[in-house]
Automatic annotation (TrEMBL):
Keyword annotations from UniProtKB, A to Z: Glycolysis, Isomerase
InterPro entries from the UniProt entry: His_Pase_superF_clade-1 (IPR013078), His_PPase_superfam (IPR029033), PG/BPGM_mutase_AS (IPR001345), Phosphogly_mut1 (IPR005952)
Name of the gene encoding the protein in the UniProt record: Pgam2
Binding site for substrate: 65-72, 117, 144-147, 155, 171-172, 243-244
Site (Transition state stabilizer): H242
Catalyzed reactions per annotation: (2R)-3-phospho-glyceroyl phosphate = (2R)-2,3-bisphosphoglycerate + H(+); (2R)-2-phosphoglycerate = (2R)-3-phosphoglycerate
BP term (GO), one: glycolytic process
Name used for this protein in its record: Phosphoglycerate mutase
Length: 309
């Protein structure tokens, strides 16, 4: 249909590094929060010498990047290839559900991508949180960024071949897409001919590769036209998706610069929460539902994936 949605139900269903960050760096402020040292960090805009009471907004949105996939485990560029969760990823998804349960957060509707790893994460999280059945909407617009010709390549080996800076640009830049996926690519057919896209995309409409900018351009219409109205109607929304589609939403919500978004690394399987005001503006930056040190290490692990070994 107009929004490319497929709705269904799942069953039940201090800080030495901080001192090196730029004073106005959005990611620096986020890391201060993650490390739970906001009151002591000189670069935190809300630094006051004491812990501030957490603000509760009129609305709340919860998002989670899928748990580790089999291709994450192998450090391969995945994109639109339909990799499943690894054993660790399944554990992360269950842990995400426990975190949601411990936080006493419930939902009325969930949104996820067409890809199995995101759907498996959502299913496991809802089950482990002992959540009631809720409607689940799936859309290609929440898919991971399409990595084009890099799909299936090892990130570290690619960095060694082309240089870490080049790979960082391909992975994290705002408007530079990777090399395109041509028809003779090993994984072209299994992606383009996937029957799940039959009613959503024509073969000629499939992206050959995407920058973050292009990913945002196909993600935000879904956010604005489907998710935002639900939030404003008072529905409690959960999004289980991918690193880059979620980075696009985060960039939009927090008005993060094209440069700073390159440094944002969302860890797998750790939910994060936004409290929003009446105009859906965040009252504070995202809050992870997890142990600060675990979150910090997970973010660093994502950042290191594209480094030569």
């Amino acid at each position: 249909n107009e929004h490319d949605i497929d709705c269904k139900h799942f069953p039940n269903s201090k800080c030495p590094k901080m001192l090196a960050l730029a004073r106005n760096s959005w990611c620096g402020q986020l890391l201060c929060r993650v490390a739970n040292i906001e009151a002591r960090c000189p670069f935190s805009k809300s630094s006051s010498g004491g812990k501030q009471a957490e603000k509760k907004g009129k609305y709340r949105i919860v998002m989670v990047r899928h748990g580790e996939s089999e291709w994450n485990q192998k450090n391969l560029f995945c994109g639109w290839f339909d990799a499943k969760l690894s054993e660790k990823g399944q554990q992360e998804a269950c842990a995400a559900g426990k975190a949601l349960k411990d936080a006493k957060i419930e939902f009325d509707v969930a949104h996820t991508s067409v890809l199995t790893r995101a759907q498996e994460t959502l299913r496991a999280a809802l089950k482990s949180s002992e959540h009631k059945k809720i409607p689940v909407c799936t859309t290609w617009r929440l898919n991971e960024r399409h990595y084009g010709g890099l799909t299936g390549l090892n990130k570290a080996e690619t960095a060694k071949k082309f240089g870490e800076e080049k790979v960082k640009i391909w992975r994290r830049s705002f408007d530079t897409p990777p090399p395109p996926m041509e028809k003779d690519h090993e994984y072209y057919a299994c992606i383009v001919e996937d029957p799940r896209y039959k009613d959503q995309l024509k073969p000629e409409e499939f992206p050959k590769s995407e920058s973050l900018k292009l990913t945002i351009e196909r993600t935000l219409p879904y956010w604005n036209e489907v998710i935002v109205p639900q939030i404003k109607d008072g529905m409690r929304v959960l999004i289980a998706a991918h690193g880059n589609s979620l980075r696009g939403v985060v960039k939009h919500l927090e008005c993060i610069s094209d440069k700073d978004i390159m440094s944002l690394n969302l860890p797998t399987g750790i939910p994060f929460v936004y409290e929003l005001d009446e105009s859906l503006k965040p009252l504070a930056t995202l809050k992870f539902l997890g142990d600060p040190e675990t979150v910090k290490k997970a973010m660093e692990s994502v950042a290191n994936q594209g480094k030569a070994k």
